[in-house]
Amino acid sequence: MSVVVNTSKPAPSAPLLADLSGVSARRRNKNAMMTALMGVSVAVIGILLALVLGTVVRKGWSIVAGEFPQWFTKDIQLSPRRPGPGMKAAIVGTIVATATATVIAVPLGIAGAIYLNEYGKRSLFARSLRFLTSVMAGVPSIVMGLFIYVFWVVPRGVDGLNGFSGALALACLMLPIVVRSTEEMLRLVPQNLRDASLALGATASRTTLTVVIPKAAPGIISGSLLAVARAAGETAPLIFTIGAAKHTNWNPFSGTNTSLSLQIYANAKESFPTAQERAWGAALTLIVLAFVFTFVARSLSARLSKGGES
Amino acid sequence: MALALDDLKSKKQIADRTFRGMTIAGGVTIVLILGLIAWTIASKSSLAFRTEGLSFFTERRWAPASNVYGALSFIFGTSVTALIAVVLAVPVSLGIALFTTQVAPSWLKRPIVAMTDLVAVVPSVVFGLWGIIFLAPKLVPVFTTVSGWFHGVPILGRIFGPASAGRTFMTAGLILAIMITPIITSISREVIETCPPTDRDGALALGATRWEMITGAVLTHSAGGIVGAVMLGLGRAMGETIAAALVIGSSPAITANLFSSGDSLPSVIAFEWGEATSDAKRSALIAMGLTLFVMTLIVNFAATYVVNRAMKRMRGES
């Protein structure tokens, strides 16, 4: 008997496998072949991921490390065909746009989620809000960019192209993600905690603020960080909204800006090797940024799920 | 004394109501934003729909210079690349989902899940960059070889026709396939994990091999949910902009040849918006955005409906 031991989780785990010695060769071979194909699928995605990351790290490292301090301290080379260090403007732009978008989308999303889970519950408005949030999650990111361009940038003319406009488009993208993940986290908070707080005479708002939210906080933060990581990597909403700057601009409200993703997109289209090098460098910088955010988010949510079990 | 207590109570009530009001305001704002998106996009595209009428969807020519705006070749490109992506991604995603739930020992599960999740974290523009600079040049000889195999074969010979460049429908489909694999995998895995162990143990007890157990118990049980997962992947592939824009070739075409360059809705918006100065062209591009929005909306709705129904049924059964 070949036995795969069932561990910790009761339902989903590899089942006990029967002895196949009495089974016909045809059926045994088919079983072995399909099992091998499943293994191959895992290998395929693993190899592709390694290939993508490997290329980015190899090509990106040579410029990021080769131009070490200047990569992070100098503005972007004006001509794509000339070599030269500097991605500071894009790093700053990504930080400015993503941070501004976070300030807009996260409080709004959390407020919406609190309404959904603590007040609205199954009411008509809550159900429509849940439905519309899922609609919004499906809006293609380029459409968000078009929307902000037409609605926000056009009325402001040339001054409309700035970090804030880009942030608005990113915020539209983050909003449904934040609402959805926050609501899920609030739902995980046991009802008896709320009941206990209410029984002690606390109002509903006090219960939410001092009992429910602290309990769900790590999950809410991790969901928001995942949305931030997603927004930091987005390109399409920024193409029409943020402008095309090469100089560092910390001010979201005035002057054009740029981002790592836009620099990758613009330089990838160029045929000059210098531009392509710059694209790989920006890609490495962006991937590291996205991975750090995701890693922090994951470890927070892992801590939450451990806390929930105990 | 009683007065003070009442005072305290009403103060508390005011705070309570204010907080409640704030959360409702948050919800209303979200609804308003979505309404604004729909209204803005719809009103700005009306010019294109008024002048082009239904021919906007049936005209295959895109010639802004002579004021002809047809979306058909872009709708075609979006559909074809998304379909290629799904066809390529589904077997791999199902394989990974089945491997993690049915085959892998428990210590191997977390690394595999983490690995597929990592694919989802890579920004789409990075896949585009990799596709345009690294993958596309390497694909030209591959395409040529494959099209050589099918040369002269009816139908297949036309689908795998001669390759002119590395940036084609197929390249875009390949990149999109990598990008949608994580979502199809994770939803399929969730669905498969709802399969009751008694079903699987029953199949095995009857003498089924593992593969027979999977086809007989696991897949029949999870079919609905997996179909939904695939459709969500399709929706994701259709809406994805930048990666596809970089590798599709940006030359609108309607052809059976998958190894030919083409264009898609999001890609033409991203590329031509900057040069679009006339109202007519801008409106046409926004109308393409609306078309894309509606297409993804339909697919996403169908997918959500299928997944929810399947999940409900399975929970009820187990």
How would you describe this protein?
The complex is a heterodimer of chains A (310) and B (318). Helices cover 73% and strands 0% of the residues of chain A. Chain A has 310 residues and is mainly alpha-helical. Chain A has 2 domains: 42 residues; 222 residues, Orthogonal Bundle (MetI-like fold), CATH 1.10.3720.10. The two termini of chain A are 36 Å apart. Chain B is mostly helical. Chain B has a two-stranded antiparallel ribbon. In chain B, helix 4 packs across helix 7 and helix 8 packs across helix 9. The longest helix of chain B is centred in the N-terminal third of the chain and has 51 residues. Chain B is flat and about 80 Å long. The mean pLDDT of chain B is 89. Chains A and B meet through helix 1, helix 3, helix 4, helix 5 and helix 6 of A and helix 1, helix 3, helix 4, helix 5 and helix 7 of B.
For this entry, give a set of tags.
heterodimer; A: 310 residues; mainly alpha; MetI-like fold; 2 domains; disordered N terminus; B: 318 residues; two-stranded antiparallel sheet; 12 helices; 2 strands; flat; phosphate transmembrane transporter activity (chain A); membrane (chain A); transmembrane (chain A); MetI-like (chain A); cell membrane (chain A)
